[in-house]
Amino acid sequence: MRPAAGWDIPGRNTDRGRARNAAARSGAGAGRRPSADGAPGGRIRRCRGTERARQGAGRVFSPAPRPYLPGMFRSGLRAALCAACLAPAAALAVPLALPIDCVPGETCHVQQYTDRDPGPGARDFTCGPLSYEGHKGTDFALATDADIAREVAVLAAAPGVVTALRDGMPDLRQGTPGAPDVTGRDCGNGVVIDHGDGWETQYCHLKSGSVAVREGETVPAGTRLGAVGLSGRTEFPHLHLSVRRDGAVVDPFDPSDTAACGVAARPLWVDPLPYTPGA
């Protein structure tokens, strides 16, 4: 298999980190402003040319003498010009659907977010503590190990082409007897999808034998890629989702500069996921 760039990024998915995050969740309600949906609105620019047209300056469209334009045509042209002017930068991004077949807050939860701290510390996109140093993705955790047997589906978050995959690594918790050396294979069983224009997503820690796509296959959003497992460098069952643009990590909850936090940016999620520090 030809590995993709950034295929295996060393990281820690430990019970110690899980316990630290659980403690942070239980005490994070005070003193921090939780986001109801993680999707504060962006700034909208005024369409100046359209404003002038609205005021009757026909020269915006053509020099004098001004030809006759039916009212319906003028209205449609104004709408088209303003739509182009108002289109936010986020519209160029890849909209992402939930990459796991579960109900957030009920049958799964976000255990750890992308690390936004450029230094040795760790902080999530709200400037809260639900991350760890160098974490380059979002961890969607199942409640217990027993949930692995339910074959919880991992789904393509957006349409694209499968560019790399791995299967066959055992589902063994790191630190237990017989656990394999995963150096250079931290992702475990996984899939990488190219969405075009430099965007790609990576899905890690899939269950052994569950990968259901092939390299080079074109997949629509929602395609089953495999099932949540315990492969690679992990100590609890979860899906690790990484989002990248031109090889750089992008936080789907806040695609602005990953060295900052607490920024009111539009998320990449089609359906916004709530940030629940007390879960």
Write up what this structure looks like.
It is a single chain. This protein has 279 residues and is an alpha+beta fold. The chain has 3 helices and 10 strands, in the order H-H-H-E-E-E-E-E-E-E-E-E-E. It has helices spanning 15-27, 48-54, 71-86, and strands at 108-112, 138-142, 153-155, 160-166, 189-196, 199-206, 218-219, 224-227, 238-245, 248-249. Helix 2 packs antiparallel against helix 3 (71-86). Residues 26-91 have low confidence and may be disordered.
Defining traits:
two-stranded antiparallel sheet; globular; eight-stranded antiparallel sheet; alpha+beta; single chain; 279 residues; 3 helices
Secondary structure blueprint with pairings:
Elements lengths: L14 H13 L20 H7 L16 H16 L21 E5 L25 E5 L10 E3 L4 E7 L22 E8 L2 E8 L11 E2 L4 E4 L10 E8 L2 E2 L30
Antiparallel strand pairs: 1-2, 2-9, 3-8, 4-5, 4-7, 5-6, 6-9, 9-10
So how many helices?
3
Q: What's the pLDDT, averaged over the residues?
A: 76
Which oligomeric form is depicted?
single chain
Low-confidence residue ranges: 26-91
Task: Look at the helices and sheets and give the structural class.
Answer: alpha+beta
How would you sum up the major sheet?
8 strands, antiparallel
Order of helices and strands: HHHEEEEEEEEEE
How far apart lie the N and C ends? 39 Å
Strand content: 15-25%
Please compute the radius of gyration using only Cα atoms: 23 Å
- The count of strands amounts to 10
Residue share in helix: 10-25%
Shape: globular
